[in-house]
Amino acid sequence: MAAGLDPAQGLSGPRRGARRRFGGALWRRPWLKGLSLLGPPSVAFIAVYIAALAALFVSSFWSVNAFTGVTVHTWSLNNFRELWHGATYHTVALRTISIAAAVTVTDAIIAFPFAYFMARLAGPRTRALLFVLVLLPLWASYLARVYAWRLILDHDGILNWSLQKVGLPAANIAYTNTAVWIVFSYIWLPFMILPVYAALERIPHSYIEASRDLGAKGGRTLRSVIIPLALPGVVAGSIFTFSLTLGDYITPILVGGSSSQFIGNVVYDTVNQSSNLPFAAAYATVPLAVMGAYLLIARRLGAFEAL
Amino acid sequence: MKHKPSLGIKDPYELNSAQFTATINLLKQQKPLIKKYWELASDEIDLFKNGDAVVGAAWPYQTNTLIAAKAPVKDLVPSEGATGWLDTWMVSSHTKNLPCAYQWLAYVSTPKVQAEQAIYFGETPVNSKACAIMDTLSKGSCAQYHANAPLKYFKQIYFWKTPIAACGNGQNNCMDYTQWQQAWTQLKG
Amino acid sequence: MEGKGTRIGLGVWVVLVLAFLYVPIVLICLYAFNKSNVQSWPIPGVTTKWFSPAIHNPDMQVALWLSLKAAALATVSALVLGTAASFGVHRFRFFGRELISFILVLPIALPGIITGMALNSYFVFWKVNFGLWTIVIGHATFCVVVVYNNVLARLRRIPGSLTEASMDLGADGWQTFRHITFPSISTALISGGLLAFALSFDEVIVTTFTAGAQNTLPIWIFGQIRLGQQLPQVNVVVFLVLAVTIIPVALAQRLTRESGILRTE
């Protein structure tokens, strides 16, 4: 690094002087530097993403002319009223949120021991290998992996075939909400393992030694030291597993049954078959509100630092 | 239509409130028997091939694919009749190059293109001259896709038309597409 | 501190979880060699006949190329915007600093269907034609945070004394960045960029709303799954993508010792 700082290697002459003056100007006016760094990303995000979200929210108060399909810009709460009184929309929202919660809990339970092994027991080589093995599925098409689950869960699929071989009765979970739950838990598992691992790995070994020196048994150390310190990681992972399940509509189409509509499916059909964007937008405020609340709690728990 | 003539249904896409409710109630009654309301053609192929379903509404495409995969299936038009679907080309009113659009329409209507599309996509060609070309592309495909079927065959199919309030008999009390859509969402639950 | 029983138990758990993760992927690879184009178990026979048509399928090639372009552009935008934001947030204390993290996390934390729908109607409103750039914008929204978190976490670890020493030794701001800061964040950029690329390359939900009439690879795959006529070709393509990515992913891992899904340390 010292060699890199040799002035002979750098630029010389007037160009360097100009650059120095420019650098100096930024140095003297930190706000200018801050603005030039934060300006572009903030403007890009506000002008495109936040503005688009706001416009969507506004449109949920409009309606669509059933005959012409043209948006009517009259303010009303009709969409929300319809959602409030439509029992189906409650059922679908409840199903979506329950399955998203179940997926999150399942993934946390599966991921924690795995991440613990990675962070605390595995040697550097095993750890690196496990790391690649957890990340690699993200490169195998999500759709193809969901579809592969059909082969496993089908009536004549691999699961029942294996159960039959060992003399167990067939499990009829193909095209049910159980299948949806299993496949979502499968698909989003890496998104839980990695933040939990990151949180566990950051726990200094001295904390665990201190706990032991103070007379705590393994279980007590786990409860009182490791789990509280890993919690931000679990919450960070849960942001992914929960929100990814909440907004998905493809997995329910592929592996769901006759009563597996998610909020995403109703929203998608409302846009693409009925062309009723305002109503879809109104329904989309449900996951929006749920996630908003979730994020606020997650921030309290320090999950943003652990993402 | 056939089993409850008292309802007086003349066209499955023109249903007044009473007829519509009766239809939805029948569907609700059937629901416990339903494994899946298939959305993708491959859903149904998988359901049949892997033992999850034994009977279902299908396109000839699914039946043909299953037969090719040696699954023991057969399709037929029930005595009650069947519903059908016609894919159509549309020209946008904002089209910049109208002659070009018409040339395209003429091109996709030629027997050769019709035959290729029929086989790739698994649908019956509209141009009956496609039949011979279909058979050269894939033996027996013309009959498979009913491209040579007599007019009588198509007469028994109720082709889809978007439900609107106008019933066709001068009355305006039919359920429109939005109501159909809502009922369907509610049925699937 | 773990007893022997705990160690063995955890080891078994790891093996089971890996099996859970990889059984579907093994199946995808196996069914790339399926004789029948309808998938059922057990596999009726083995063939390599799907490889050539899959590789030479022009629709697939166009879709793959579009996906690669979109993922590359989304990754580059994410690298530029994410790095700038992380430097700004790291260096300066200001009102609303927390808000920036919050806003950047939103696209990945809010359900994809909302992002997709919102962007779709926004593009329609501004009469933007759907195509490569609308896809890139859609993907960049959730890729920025990946880079941002990685770089920010790394910046927090670089001791401030390093840059001060560099300045004391006479380096200007640019030289300090070039020789000190950049080398220390480069591996964070690699792991963040790689993950951003992977997320963009496999994205379906936002893309269905922002792609217009064009197919990215996942949308092509969904089209094939819809009809179910050429499923073995899908498996071949997924198998090949996986085979091609194993080496760079493993190499990058060795280089970077990454750990968070969104961050490096």
Describe this structure in words.
The complex is a heterotrimer of chains A (about 300), B (about 190) and C (about 260). Chain A has two domains: about 15-60, no CATH class; about 85-305, MetI-like (MetI-like fold, Orthogonal Bundle). In chain A, helix 4 (about 85-120) packs parallel to helix 8, helix 8 (about 175-200) crosses helix 10 and helix 9 crosses helix 10 (about 220-245). Chain A is built from 13 helices and two strands, in the order ααββααααααααααα. Chain A has helices spanning about 15-30, 30-60, 80-85, 85-120, 125-135, 140-155, 160-165, 175-200, 205-215, 220-245, 250-255, 265-270, 275-300, and strands spanning about 65, 70. Chain B is mainly alpha-helical and about 190 residues long. A two-stranded parallel ribbon of chain B has the order 1-2. Chain B has two domains: about 1-85 and about 160-190, no CATH class; about 90-150, no CATH class. Chain B is about 45% helix and about 5% strand. In chain B, helix 5 (about 110-120) packs across helix 6. Chain C is mostly helical. Chain C has one domain (about 50-255): MetI-like fold, CATH 1.10.3720. In chain C, helix 3 packs across helix 10 (about 215-225), helix 4 (about 95-110) packs across helix 6 and helix 8 packs antiparallel against helix 11. Classes of the chains: A mainly alpha (about 300), B mainly alpha (about 190), C mainly alpha (about 260). Chains in contact: A-B, A-C, B-C. At the A-C interface, helix 1, helix 2, helix 4, helix 5 and helix 6 of A face helix 1, helix 3, helix 4, helix 5 and helix 6 of C.
Short description:
Chain B has nine helices and two strands, in the order H-H-H-E-H-H-H-H-H-E-H.
Overall CATH architecture of the largest domain in chain A: Orthogonal Bundle
Within CATH, the superfamily of the largest domain in chain A carries the name MetI-like
Strand coverage percent of chain B = under 5%
What is the 3D form of chain B? globular
Largest sheet of chain B: 2 strands, parallel
Set out the fold topology.
The complex is a heterotrimer of chains A (307), B (189) and C (265).
Chain A: H1 14-28, H2 30-59, E1 63-64, E2 71-72, H3 78-85, H4 87-121, H5 124-135, H6 142-153, H7 158-165, H8 177-201, H9 205-213, H10 218-246, H11 250-255, H12 263-272, H13 277-300
Antiparallel strand pairs in A: 1-2
Chain B: H1 17-30, H2 41-49, H3 60-68, E1 82-84, H4 98-108, H5 111-121, H6 130-137, H7 141-144, H8 151-155, E2 157-159, H9 177-188
Parallel strand pairs in B: 1-2
Chain C: H1 4-31, H2 51-56, H3 58-91, H4 97-109, H5 112-125, H6 132-157, H7 160-168, H8 173-201, H9 205-210, H10 217-227, H11 231-256
